[in-house]
């Protein structure tokens, strides 16, 4: 009897150990994920300083977003732009400032939960109030940010979005945009993008409206859509950062110009 009782006492121990191991593995995974997500690519100081010094552009760093606005009269057009995965909002000031200077649009780049649009795709609804003078709103994003911006347009939103701006990104069929005749769409790919090639962008083209404007900046890689340094797995660019930003700004400004 005592031996049988001893066997029963030892029986649950493997389960206890298995549960303890599982807990440690899950806790370690969560810790590593948070450490990864909370260590974003930071804005390069030089391009950020030059962009904020433009005389016709006002850059305001708020508690939960960076706003890039014209120093003069705004055009009435605004863009909420989602950063790529693990890229801080300020890293897009250098790319958007020349667009703002050329067109008078107002751009808001929000901070995203854990720096991932995957977890915060409805973030745009809460930041449009930062620019009350804007009458026409576009939603957009870079890389993962653009994909979830596109997906958000399929949601029941409080904002009547006029269009979508995709930088090195795409929409999926689940976004249900292909039949939308009420949206203006711009999709810009990078010819040397090692993370999302032009062919991959083109493969998702059927998910966009037929009227979408699509173009490729030859020689441009994935990280050059922002100003945050090199990115693992990216292609080697064939044009300078300044050349890439100039061409990207010109293309985007032509699309957004009133």
Protein architecture, described:
With 258 residues, the protein is α/β, with parallel strands linked by helices. 33% of the residues lie in helices and 19% in strands. It has 7 helices and 8 strands. The protein has helices spanning 2-10, 13-37, 45-52, 93-103, 144-152, 198-203, 241-256; strands at residues 57-61, 65-70, 77-82, 106-110, 136-142, 161-167, 184-190, 213-217. Strands 1-2-4-3-5-6-7-8 form an 8-stranded mixed beta sheet. α6 (198-203) links the parallel β7 (184-190) and β8. α3 packs parallel to α4 and α4 packs across α7 (241-256). The protein starts with a helix and ends with a helix. 42% of the residues are buried. Residues 1-7 and 30-37 have low confidence and may be disordered.
Our estimate of the beta-strand percent is 15-25%
Distance between the termini: 89 Å
Mean pLDDT reading: 90
Element string (H = helix, E = strand): HHHEEEHEEHEEHEH
Strand order in space, largest sheet:
1-2-4-3-5-6-7-8
Helix content: 25-40%
- SS summary, helix count: 7
Radius of gyration: 22 Å
Structural class category = alpha/beta
Biggest sheet features? 8 strands, mixed
Number of strands: 8
Write a short abstract of this structure.
The chain has 258 residues and is of the alpha/beta class. Helix content is 33%, strand content 19%.
Name its key features.
single chain; 258 residues; 33% helix; globular; disordered N terminus
Write the layout of secondary structure elements.
Elements: H1 2-10, H2 13-37, H3 45-52, E1 57-61, E2 65-70, E3 77-82, H4 93-103, E4 106-110, E5 136-142, H5 144-152, E6 161-167, E7 184-190, H6 198-203, E8 213-217, H7 241-256
Parallel strand pairs: 3-4, 3-5, 5-6, 6-7, 7-8
Antiparallel strand pairs: 1-2, 2-4
Helix pairs in contact: 3-4, 4-7
């Amino acid at each position: 009897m005592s031996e049988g009782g001893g066997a029963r006492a030892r029986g649950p121990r493997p389960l206890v150990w298995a549960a303890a191991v599982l807990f440690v593995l899950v806790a370690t995974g969560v810790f590593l994920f948070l450490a990864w997500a909370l260590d974003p690519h930071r804005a390069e100081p030089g391009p950020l300083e030059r962009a904020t010094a433009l005389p016709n552009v006002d850059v305001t760093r708020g508690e939960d977003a960076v706003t890039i606005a014209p120093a003069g009269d705004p055009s009435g057009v605004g863009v909420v732009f989602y950063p790529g995965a693990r890229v801080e909002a300020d890293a897009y000031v250098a790319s958007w400032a020349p667009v703002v200077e050329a067109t008078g649009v107002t751009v808001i780049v929000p901070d995203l939960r854990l720096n991932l649009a995957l977890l915060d795709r409805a973030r745009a609804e809460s930041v449009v109030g930062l620019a009350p003078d804007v009458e026409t709103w576009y939603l957009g994003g870079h890389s993962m940010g653009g994909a979830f911006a596109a997906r958000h347009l399929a949601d029941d939103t409080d904002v009547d979005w006029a269009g979508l701006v995709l930088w090195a990104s795409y929409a999926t069929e689940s976004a249900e945009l292909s039949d939308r005749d009420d949206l203006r769409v711009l999709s810009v790919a990078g010819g040397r993008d090692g993370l999302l090639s032009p062919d991959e962008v083109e493969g998702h083209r059927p998910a966009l409206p037929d009227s979408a404007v699509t173009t490729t900046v030859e020689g441009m890689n994935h990280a050059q859509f922002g100003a945050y340094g090199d990115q693992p797995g990216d292609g080697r660019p064939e044009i300078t950062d300044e050349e890439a930003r100039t061409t990207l700004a010109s293309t985007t400004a032509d699309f957004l110009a009133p």
